[in-house]
Structure prediction request, 571 residues.
Amino acid sequence: MSDIQSNNGKKNKRWMGPDRITVEADAQLSEYPISFRQVLFNRGLVTAEQAHEFLQGMGEEFDPFLMKGVDQSVDLILDAIHGGENIVVYGDYDVDGVTATALLVQAIRQLGGIAMEYIPNRFDEGYGLNSEAIETLKEQGTNLIVTVDCGIRSVKEAELTREFGIKLVISDHHHPREMVPMADSVICPRQDGDGYPYKELAGVGIAYKMARALFLRDGRDPAEADQWLDLVALGTVSDIAPLTGENRILVKRGLKLIQTKPRQGIYSLMMVAEIRRPASLSAVDIGFKLGPRLNAAGRMESAVNALRLLMTDDPGEAGKLAQTLQIQNSSRQDSTLANQKFAEEQLGSIDDLPIIIAFATEEKFHSGIVGLVAARLVERHYRPAVVGVIGEEVTRASCRSIDEFHITQALDECADLMVRHGGHSKAAGFTVKNENRDELKERLLKIASNQLTPEDLVPTVHYDAEVTLNELRADLYNLQGQLEPTGNENPKPLFMTRGVTVVSKNKIGKEKNHLRLTLTNGGLSIDAVAFRMGELAEDLPVKVDLVYSFEVNDYNNQFQLIIRDIRPAES
Prediction:
């Protein structure tokens, strides 16, 4: 395994090559090109059978009734359906929550139930169950609330539903606290005593499993739920859930559904996102094109437009909603860049900080995009980032982190200071009273300082194999396509090439912050794009080493490189 330092002008990075493929694995995988054998080996695929199963998307989908709480939840929901009770599916305002809401509402209605949706407003209500919403739903005659993608930490809110005589089913995929809410039923693969074999389902994945269980218990074909696998793909990829195991299988099937028979809302969204070949839609397209546009609704105004888009069959309505999301996404992009610049100016020398913590009023930070700003700061400076908006009484913040620092565990250590908090290892959010904000900041700085070493703050780029540009042929491209869907924990292969000649270089993009290159190596010429590396144009030498992915340009159907990192060539 090689360890190489680079400096691309943004942040020093460590390049880490793989452990070399073993002789035994090399022999087992001999039907594949040598560079692709290494790619398979890096993913733990060491026999011909393992490689074949993985590349063909084979694998087990588990019985939903293995999940703790599903049996009881299904009975509660079916009783409400058959009794003509009012059911509300209560979701989150991100893509995972919106897709999960759309899925379960449609499933309950297809079973003959009376189902309405409720997605809290990010700005007025914040994340998860809240008391005001529960009171409103009580006044509207709600008999049963089913949460999706939220609720696992809503202990007080669960008590309130019980006081009001509203039945509550919680379904969530986030990490629970020690005390699980006293709901009528709780579904969460991460809760104690859960026997479900795969713990990484997104909120929409759990909603899909619930739908299958509902159809099965009601004496119908559980495959009826497969019509919503497109929503599972959208939500799972957008939530950056691991594309391993069952998630990979479900997303692969969902992508195929979108490619062959997209629902009207998704088709309209693909058109405004300029996805020119819907039949070859990838998880990357969801992550970078569809997901951000759906998320923009909840970030800039209300997630209701995203939900309506996913549930409508009317082409005219879908077209108008997709255009609205497109406009909101453009506004979101502009605001994110402006907020990021303000945060960096406010903080000054970030390299001296173990964790970035930036708080400002609504005039400086848009509360709908603080998570995106935090993510940009992590990407640029490689350290945890907390970005929050100061309100009259409380500050609401979003957090993003690096592999070396579990942000939710850090927040757990400060739970006594916060009104609420929750999340994952690399993404979280919290609400803190303003009088406790400074102490919280000091504690987080201390926790990060104690846990993180200077070496931890050097980002690592892991590449799969060292190749020459001549090895980037159609057969390799087609084989790496079988690794799809790629994403979190199943990344698109990255290759490293030394001594590449830069023939031309141009800044591109509205902000001139991207770089387009023409490169040669070993007699082959190829175009490349380096996103957010436009500042390198003036100082880039003629000879460089690259880490990159190998893709096809949708506009001209030619191979191109997407550069992950670049450095002057070693002599």
Notes: The two ends are 20 Å apart (CA to CA). The first strand starts at residue 3 and ends at 7. The chain has a mean pLDDT of 94.
